[in-house]
Known about the structure:
16-stranded parallel barrel, disordered C terminus, mainly beta
Amino acid sequence: MRSFRTALSVAAVALAVSLAGCSTAATSSTSTGTTGTSTTTTTTQHAVTAATIEEDTHYDSDDLTWDAATEVAISLADGGSKVTSSSSTGVAVDGDTVTISAAGTYRLSGSLSDGQIVVAAGEEDTVRIILDGVELGNSAGSPFVVQSADEAIVYLDDGSTNTLTDATTYADLGEDAPDAALYSMADLTIAGTGSLTVNGKSNDGIVSKDGLVMASGKVTVDAVDDGIRGKDYTVLLDGAYQVTAGGDGVKADNETDEGRGWLLVSGGSLTVNAGDDGVKAFNALTVSGGTVTVAESEEGLEAQHIAISGGDVTVTANDDGVNASGGSSTSASTDADADAGAGAGMGGPGGGGMGGGEMAAGDYTVEVSGGTLTINSEGDGLDSNGSATISGGTVVVNGPTNDGNGALDVNGELVVTGGTVAAAGSAGMVVTPGSSSTQSGVQLTFDSSVSVGTPVHIVDSSGAVVATFVTTKTTASLVFSSPAITDGETYTVYTGGNADAKAGVTTGSTDGAEEQGTVTAGQYTQAQGPGGGGGRR
Length: 537
């Protein structure tokens, strides 16, 4: 068992996103669980190794290995729960409340329609609970509460189906009282190859008031408020997670301790339908692998520092798609500042620059160095109240149709040094790559809006199509950057014709397309914005 050893540097988590693979297996003589590929971020203080995730969190793969002979079997039944193993040390049954008070491995099966599992172990105890076909309900509060332990491990047995459902109204509403169907005051790990359904009918679904590592399993959460919430950190290593939440989907929310409140997705699949933010961290949010789909949200990804170095991220948002804001910055920059600040860019076919102003940038960052990021937003698409850097991967933004928001909105500088960027949206507040960018691009503003599903082709002087983008919304402007664009070269823009995909960056031909005009790579002009000001280049 490991304690939290190093407070991760917030800036390092967000800015240094080099990753190493880590594969661990969890086995017992009766069941085998696999955590799959486990990766983590590096910091400037130490090199990435396979053990980094275990150094930076409570997680230890050894905790997922045990001797089945030491298991304590607990059979759950209304009015008749009992310990069926020869050793019952550490387990007490009082009516329909089962209390575990000692370190060890406990295998639970059966059901309680109105009961509770309570872990009240020592502060240095590791308690491993195997759910082997368990259905728990509670009419007055949470059915599964970890009051005390060093670490609680909820292991979903291979092939098992398990369900936790809490009350619609809790009897105890005190400050430290449980408020989730699965609630832990200690570090919590969820692993195994079985399935778990969590119904948070009063408030949250899964909560750890310490660290939370979800190593594997098939987990479905439906919660009135937040779906999955860790405090110091929330880590998804592998597994499949389906979260429906009235509030935030998945989050890490420690706002007071330096270096805490960070979230990492390094593998598996996560799908979120949220009434508020989809995936959120107070400090740093990193995606280094796996698949993240925010199917519904107000804001899709939100943290002070957001870094995407791998994986496949798709975001749909009623407001901003990716939003670097909040956090512990003392800057006066706010979301309102970000929306008010002008970026760069009216130009291209039929274009023409107008002045714009910029608000002060705060300590906020968005960094994309790999993977794919696809955004569909009604507000700003990729929004940073500080700076943004794209050095690799593919970023596609299907941004707002109203001129009060932009596909890209960066208070500081947008630096593009690699990767592919296609940001489509309204023409009122367009941000383009800044002067520190080493990769060129083109800025297109259309005389009339391009309709949904229309291919846009960028063609070089030889007649070759260097890029095709297919719109998913009515589009007035497009900022495109890729290694295929040569700075200073003139490109002809066409709409219509053929495309090899129905959306996003693809390949295509100009057969039957209509010429819209020409643009010169690297020549950007400023959009209309408050405060006036000159062009960026």
